[in-house]
Design goal:
The chain is of the alpha+beta class. The strands form seven sheets. Strands 13, 22, 23, 24, 25, 26, 27, 28, 29, 30 and 31 form an eleven-stranded mixed β-sheet that branches. The protein is globular, with a radius of gyration of 26 Å. Helix 2 packs across helix 3, helix 5 packs antiparallel against helix 6 and helix 7 runs antiparallel to helix 8. Helices cover 27% and strands 25% of the residues.
Length: 682
């Protein structure tokens, strides 16, 4: 190829920590990555990282003010001077520019004793005003339960909001003066309280990274990573339950150790196992060291396991039970944590509890399928021989077989392998609708759900290419101008289930469709006027509004919800194409989904064994890639069938390949290290 091609490829290697030697003549690529354990290589991708340089941050602009306000510009960017409230009920609203959360501090001036300053916090600009948006949870049918946090003026005093009243998620902060003026404040700051296990200047030190020519996709990847960071909390800073009759309190004990991974930054600030079905994977590819919060959340849920084996629908202090699917997600949370880390001590400690939880599910099997009799679920109820629940159960049985092998219980491993295959056969037989080309919600249902169909592909229940393509097309028929509408949740768009749909499109080989959905749905969430332009909504209405089933209280919707971050994982393991296949990445797989409108991508992550980085570039007649994986590991390489007839060289050596459908498989295993890949059209 010509030098222009080489320069085009090299745009991804702009970091001083990455050195390029690109020679097609030698039919290989060497891109040496100088990586530090725990921190991704530096590069142009860093500008998309939303985490602050330091925990203490400042608003960046004035959003609005009323009459009776002077000097308001002193409230932003750590400027000097004072903002003065000259009359009763005068207000000023500052904008932090993105979703933030923590504890506010400011300094009072010399006057105003006997008056109050109230603080109100909002995520969406729709609810900016004298009352906060809602996080309380006491009755989500009505607005303004949270109200405002009142502070008595204390002249010449530095004031810090008490920790119980910290606000976990907001973009706008409004000050309202109650009483007689004048009252002055200055030196406004926010101490970020999320990800408390990290050093104050280490919030941007991601272990994973992603970069493409599409800035929207880069924003989506880093928006997901930042969302998850904001959902990692001190175990003593959760939402209290039952909630106070008004206002809010975030000093609830939500875990047995800190930090913990919760559902959302503003609310519920509680361990919800279903949310972990997405958030753990996002955390794995973006901030590996933060998996300690996943571990603590799983331990917390197992600490509340009943003697029957049942696990809670939600963790403390709420501690509700009654969900077959969320019980199942806890089991998958344990499995996913172990596969990511290889924490054998943890697995041994919880193995019997895990098996008890699996047996609890086994007891619900009849007619070859899992029967859901405890129906609480994500934003909808699930009962009967439900497809989603059975796909999750299938993944659990496969995972149990794998973990039994790790625990040297070969007979148990074989048992669960057989059970998994038997279940897969029954799902495909009893729940498939050949006329529709999709799975039904239950055998007698006329609903073709987003959750069950997406998970059937993602969890390996459905592997037949014709069926997978049919499911992918059917899911796309639910799209509108704002995202993918869930048939099982009428008139709602769920980024939680949408995350699985994105992965399903990728996994079925419909990669362009996956990118299109990311750009549509996650692009809407990043760019809509009603959003926080940084983190991702819990869910929203089919018409793009904030309605998500909370009665008339649209302000209750969370704008930073971990279950909505699935594209961060999918862009890494499918688009970049690098993923682990066994514990901590002892074996790995490189399978880039390059059959889409991107010609070049770079990204990677780390595990306890080291870094897994990849970059690739496609041309009209060749495909080139460079991998860096830990020495001592082994991997598989599967390339996109871009040319129909091609040859492949690994580190300059011609290798045997097998072409089948959309993929070209390298038949020999590849040892870890720096690996150059070249595929040439014949």
């Amino acid at each position: 190829k010509n030098s222009e091609d080489a320069t085009d490829f090299a745009f991804l290697i702009g970091s001083t920590k990455m050195k390029r030697f690109f020679t097609i003549a030698l039919m290989t690529i060497f891109v040496c990555l100088e990586n530090s354990l725990g921190i991704a290589p530096k590069g142009p991708w860093d500008k998309f990282n939303l985490a602050p340089v330091n925990r203490v941050i400042y608003p960046i602009s004035i959003y609005s003010k009323s009459e009776g306000i002077s000097g308001e510009q002193s409230l932003i960017l750590n400027r000097s001077g004072e903002t003065t409230f000259l009359q009763a009920n005068s207000t000023v609203t500052v904008d932090f520019g993105q979703e933030v959360g923590g504890i506010i501090s400011f300094t009072f001036g010399t006057s105003g004793k006997g008056s109050n300053i109230s603080l109100s916090y909002t995520e969406s600009s729709l609810f900016v005003g004298p009352n906060s948006d809602d996080s309380n949870g006491i009755n989500s049918e009505y607005e303004n339960i949270d109200g405002a946090f009142d502070v008595a003026v204390q002249p010449k005093t530095r004031y810090t909001v008490p920790s119980y009243a910290l606000r976990g998620g907001f973009k706008y902060l409004t000050f309202t003066m109650r009483g007689k003026g004048p009252v002055s404040i200055s030196l406004l700051s926010l101490e970020s309280t999320w990800s408390p296990h990290r050093g104050d200047n280490q919030l941007r030190d991601y272990s994973g990274f992603f970069y493409s020519p599409d800035s929207l996709l880069n924003r989506v990847w880093y928006g997901g990573a930042y969302t998850i960071q904001m959902c990692v909390l001190d175990a003593s800073q959760g939402r209290t339950w039952p909630p106070p009759p008004s206002g809010w309190k975030n000093n609830g004990l939500i875990g047995i150790a800190s930090p913990v991974l919760v559902d959302g930054a503003k609310r519920d600030r509680t361990v919800w196992p279903g949310d972990m079905g997405v958030s753990v994977s996002t955390q794995f590819v973006s901030n590996y060291e933060d998996l300690i919060s996943t571990k603590n959340s799983v331990k917390t849920l197992f600490a509340h396991q009943k003697n029957t084996g049942e696990l809670p629908f939600v963790g403390p202090p709420i501690n509700f039970y009654g969900s077959t699917t969320y019980h199942s997600w806890t089991l998958l949370g344990l499995y996913n944590y172990y596969i990511a880390t290889g924490d054998s001590e943890f697995l041994s400690a919880y193995w019997q509890g895990f098996l008890s939880g699996v047996e609890f599910l086994n007891s619900k099997v009849s007619n070859g399928l899992l029967f859901v009799d405890e129906g609480a679920d994500w934003a909808r109820d699930t009962y009967g021989y439900n497809t989603q629940a059975n796909c999750i159960y299938y993944k659990i049985l496969v995972g149990t077989s794998e973990l039994a092998t790790v625990m040297n219980q070969s007979d148990l491993s074989k048992k669960y392998s057989v059970m998994a295959e038997n279940l897969r056969v029954q799902i495909r037989k009893q729940l498939w609708d050949a006329a529709e080309g999709m799975y039904k919600d239950t055998p007698t249902s006329e609903v073709y759900p987003q959750d069950g169909n997406s998970l059937s592909i993602l969890f390996g229940v459905e592997t037949e290419e014709t069926r997978m393509n049919s499911i992918s097309r059917g899911l796309q028929e639910n799209w509108n101008d704002y995202g993918s509408v869930s048939p099982e949740l009428a008139f709602r768009i769920s980024p939680f289930i949408g995350s699985f749909e994105v992965a399903a499109h990728f996994a079925s080989g419909n990669s362009q469709r996956a990118l299109d959905l990311i750009r549509l749905q996650w692009g809407y969430m990043l760019n809509a006027n009603i959003s926080v332009h940084s983190t991702f909504l819990e869910g929203y209405d089919f018409n793009g509004g904030l309605g998500y089933g909370y009665g008339n209280d649209n302000s209750y919707v969370s704008h930073a919800h971990g279950w909505s971050t699935g594209p961060t994982w999918s862009l890494t393991v499918f688009a970049v194409g690098i993923n682990i296949e066994s514990t901590a990445g002892k074996t790995w797989k490189f399978q880039p989904h390059a059959d889409m409108d991107l010609n070049v991508i770079n990204g990677g992550f780390e595990t306890s064994l080291g870094r897994y980085d990849a970059l690739w570039k496609k041309y009209s007649g060749s495909f080139v890639a460079q991998l860096s994986t830990p020495v001592g590991t082994t991997g598989k390489i599967v390339l996109p069938n871009l040319y129909g007839n091609q040859q492949v060289k690994i580190n300059g050596t011609l290798v045997a390949i097998e072409t089948s459908g959309k993929w070209v498989k390298v038949l020999s295993a590849v040892n870890g290290g720096n690996i150059g890949v070249l595929m040439i059209k014949l």
